[in-house]
Design goal:
This protein has 17 helices and two strands. It is elongated. It folds into two domains: about 250 residues; about 170 residues, Hypothetical protein af1432, CATH 1.10.3210. The protein has a two-stranded antiparallel sheet with strand order 1-2. With about 425 residues, the chain is an all-alpha fold.
């Protein structure tokens, strides 16, 4: 029952899209007429190409920018130089669905089919845009583009913005449903508003490009007819390739950092799996504390590399536990590790987190130091916890370690972070 409830959001999105597609095709077939068939075929072909060259962005986000932009343009199309676009919502959904399915066939044959909820989300977003715009066009609320071009453009932009908000909401619902089991297994919280915020930030740039492309194609078709499709779709395709390269570079960074984090393990300076455990638990705390996704990535990088400075020691610390080292060695480890990170030239924020991890969150007779990053405070507490617990996840040992950290909340460990760690460990133990 728990697994079924976790996937309920995905199931609802998928079922709604399937019901919408089936009913739309039935409406079009029942009418016995496909209006402006040449236009429909050309748009379906471009949607298929867009699905064929879809991309996967950081955070395992499957996107088809070209397909979505062209589909949005078809939903907003007023007409070409010679005829008005008189089709309704059902035809928009049917054409986009057919183009999408054709574009997915090669991926399915190659075993790379996207998640059904991602495809369903894109169809529902286009259907929402069409459901708002097509009735306004049919009822004459949206005039001919030659009569009031600025007004028509404003309506299209508003509808595109509405579609973007729908996309963010549906993506957050699907992501929340997919992540629920993993978050409970890691002991992380499950606040939907944080996922909604992260999805909004992650999709803002590309979503703006998709919406702008859809509006431009729809507007330009009134003058350029179907030639507007290749003219305005190509820039979006180039932007899509740029996003793909950026995404690949992020994956390469993470793989390189994960390999680098194992140097201390291979050299016998830390226990096997210490960096990975600290990174997983630190990210869980970051989510529990509501850190945005871009900060979580910095936190993950810093946690993986927080012990690199141990390589500067003449003799390894017993068990690699930096919490038993003297203050001078702790500071040296942090600073040397930060120097290594800064050599990359692109991870300055991560280097700062690593560098400040040895500092207490406050000093005697001094208020809390606001310059110590929250990431540094998290790593300091989580590193101490893992030094005490290691790979042993017995409840008694975990409670004893948490009690040790609470004794240091006056100066060493941020009480907010320690309480978050307690919640995360408690959820993980219950799971």
């Amino acid at each position: 029952m728990r697994a079924a409830s976790d996937r309920s959001g995905v199931g609802v999105v998928g079922f709604a899209a399937l019901l919408l597609v089936v009913s739309s095709i039935a409406v079009v077939a029942g009418s016995g007429e496909l209006r402006q068939p040449v236009t429909a075929l050309v748009f379906a072909a471009f949607v298929a190409v867009g699905e064929l060259v879809r991309i996967t962005l950081p955070g395992d986000r499957d996107e088809a920018p070209l397909a979505t932009g062209v589909a949005l343009a078809y939903a907003l199309l007023v007409g070409g130089p010679t005829e008005a676009a008189t089709y309704g919502v059902a035809q928009v959904v049917s054409v986009v669905a057919v183009g999408t399915l054709i574009g997915l066939v090669p991926h399915a044959i190659a075993g790379r089919a996207p998640r059904a909820d991602d495809v369903a989300r894109r169809l529902l977003v286009i259907a929402a845009a069409a459901a708002v715009f097509r009735p306004l066009l049919e009822r004459g609320v949206v005039p001919d583009i030659d009569e009031a071009p600025l007004f028509v453009a404003a309506v299209m932009v508003a509808v595109a913005a509405f579609a973007g908000l729908c996309d963010i909401a549906l993506a957050a619902i699907a992501r929340a449903s997919r992540q629920a089991p993993r978050r409970r297994a890691r002991g992380a919280g499950f606040p939907f508003w944080r996922i909604l915020r992260d999805e909004g930030r992650a999709r803002l740039g590309l979503g703006s490009a998709i919406g702008a492309t859809g509006v431009l194609i729809a507007l330009a078709a009134g003058v350029m007819s179907l030639w507007a499709l290749p003219v305005f779709a190509v820039p979006l395709l180039l932007a899509q390739f740029a996003f793909r390269r950026w995404s690949a570079s992020r994956v390469t960074y993470l793989q390189t950092i994960q390999a680098l984090s194992r140097v201390t393990e291979v050299g016998g300076y830390t226990e096997t799996g210490h960096a990975r455990r600290v990174a997983d638990l630190a990210v869980a705390l970051g989510r529990d504390l509501g850190l945005p996704e871009r900060h979580l990535l910095d936190l993950q990088y810093a946690a993986l590399m927080h012990d690199l400075g141990q390589l500067s020691l003449h003799e390894p610390i017993p068990g690699g536990a930096t919490t038993v080292a003297n203050r001078a060695d702790q500071i040296r480890i942090a600073e040397m590790g930060a120097d290594v990170v800064r050599q990359t030239g692109v991870l300055d924020r991560v280097a700062t987190i690593v560098e400040r991890q040895a500092e207490p969150y406050r000093r005697p007779h001094v208020d809390v130091d606001p310059t110590v990053p929250i990431g540094s405070r998290i790593i300091r507490a989580v590193n101490a916890y893992d030094d005490l617990v290691g790979d042993n996840r017995e409840q008694g040992r975990a409670l004893e370690a948490l009690e040790r950290l609470r004794l240091g909340m006056a100066y060493e460990y941020d009480p907010v972070v320690v309480e978050s760690l307690s919640r995360v460990v408690a959820r993980s133990t219950l799971t």
